[in-house]
Amino acid sequence: MTSPRLCRATLDRLPDGVAGLTYNPSQITAGIVHLGPGAFHRAHMARYVHALMSDGQAMDWGIVGAGLTPFDTGVRHALSPQDWLYTLVERDDDGATAQVVGSIVDLVAPDDTAVILEVIDKAAVRIVSLTVSENGYCLDANTRRLDRANPLVVTDLAGPRHPRSVIGLLVEAFRRRRDTGRPAFTALSCDNLPGNGSLLRAAVLDFAGLVDADLADWIAEHARFPATMVDRITPVTRPEDVAAMPGTWGLADAWPVICEPYSQWVIEDDFADGRPNWEDVGVQFTADVEPFERMKLRLLNASHLALASLGWLMGYRMVAEAMRDPRLARYIRALMQQELSPTLAADLPVDLTAYQDRLVQRFSNRTLRDTVERINTDASINLLLDPIRDRLAAGRPIRRLSLAVAAWIHRLALVDDDALALRHPLADELRSLAKAGGVDQSQLLARTDVFGDLSTNAAFLAAVTRWLSRKGVAGQAL
Q: What's the pLDDT score for residue 101?
């Protein structure tokens, strides 16, 4: 028997075990435009909006996904025949659940951003959120402000009414709001960046100031850029996941999302024109996100990247298998306890030992089939460099952190597939330098556009070079 294809027409005959909708998706109106509607967004923000709708709330906070990349076009093609519905599968070693999520009402992924601007123009849209990775912010590696030499920025400054970058898009959307006398929206970053709200605000104001000083002043006064901390391990959906849906759940879905059961979202409560009542479904609102954000970026994201880089060198391709190697498990525990935790606030209202125990458990989740490739390709090296700066400023050793950096470089020199090397605007150039450098990676380490001030820090350079000079970086170090 052929499994039904997920869409509105099949909602009344979902298989047993798949949770359906308790609300009518045709009654949802859009209040959020999300830039970068990939798997994480659909496992996280879209899931929280769905939870509110399931409680009879937020029907005016539906989401329009807006993509700027070919990848987003693929998501649109997959979800359009499904009326933007998709299955969210949460699983760990104790079992799995599946539910249909209906909070997305449309998904646009045009070649021309004019279509996205028209969607943001709608009066009901009060939040523009984004998960576009660090590269989407067009930041200078040293100043962490707008990189005016970035090719996208240069192009957008020459023609700001027809933007191609995320920052240019936001500025043009704000200009339209100002010029038509309508309220500013909230720009809500959901990316794993320290101070993500402040970074986004600074980049937008820098760009706007170069285009129209009065516009920059209007944005600064009326718009809001709250900081957030987001957490949910969400691997890339694989063809095998799609193929397994009919046999496992009795439902055909062209692009389901697979994630862990754990989810956390902490948001600075500072919005320009209202927000959903996310606190009713577990979101924590606070005046200061930074302590939570730093804890997550340091203990989860930095450790994840260290594990993925070293694990890849040791032949592991799955995160869980790497975490279950006793040598890597000891290393990750020591990294978190001895080098990362000391960089956090002493009065953090969290049991750090329990938090680290849970991270080890989450990293060990075999059912997610999360790959080290995903983390190595997507995660920013700044996740390791930021705690290194703090450690060096305090005069503390960076033995384990510098090993992770050396592993990141060594992997970059060895990976054969360009597509798997690094998601970074300088990926090709950095990979070429790494391959040419061999043991001597001085040219790569001298790149201030990657390593910033650390490119001239003698202690950092010595520590990383010491690891690189050892044959078999990962195995001998552990």
A: 98
The type of residue at 248 is T
At 31, is the secondary structure helix, strand, or coil?
strand
For the chain, what is the total number of helices (H) and then of strands (E)?
23, 12
Regarding predicted confidence, which is higher, 109 or 48?
48
User: 63 and 258 in contact (C-beta within 8 Å)?
Assistant: no
Task: Provide φ and ψ at 438, rounded to 5°.
Answer: 60, -130
What does the radius of gyration of the chain's CA atoms come to, in whole angstroms? 22
What 55-60 contacts at long range (C-beta under 8 Å, 24+ apart), as own/partner pairs, is 55/280, 55/281, 56/23, 57/276, 57/277, 57/280, 58/276, 58/277, 59/23, 59/27, 59/28, 59/29, 60/28, 60/29, 60/31, 60/124
Residue 378 has pLDDT above 90, yes or no: no
* pTM score of the predicted model: 0.88
% of the chain beyond a pLDDT of 90? 85
Residue keyed to tokens 């830039």? 35
Strand 62-66 relative to strand 104-108, pairing: parallel
Q: How far apart are CA 266 and CA 282, in angstroms?
A: 9
Residue 100: in which H helix or E strand, if any?
strand 95-101
Separation of alpha carbons 382 and 194, rounded Å: 10
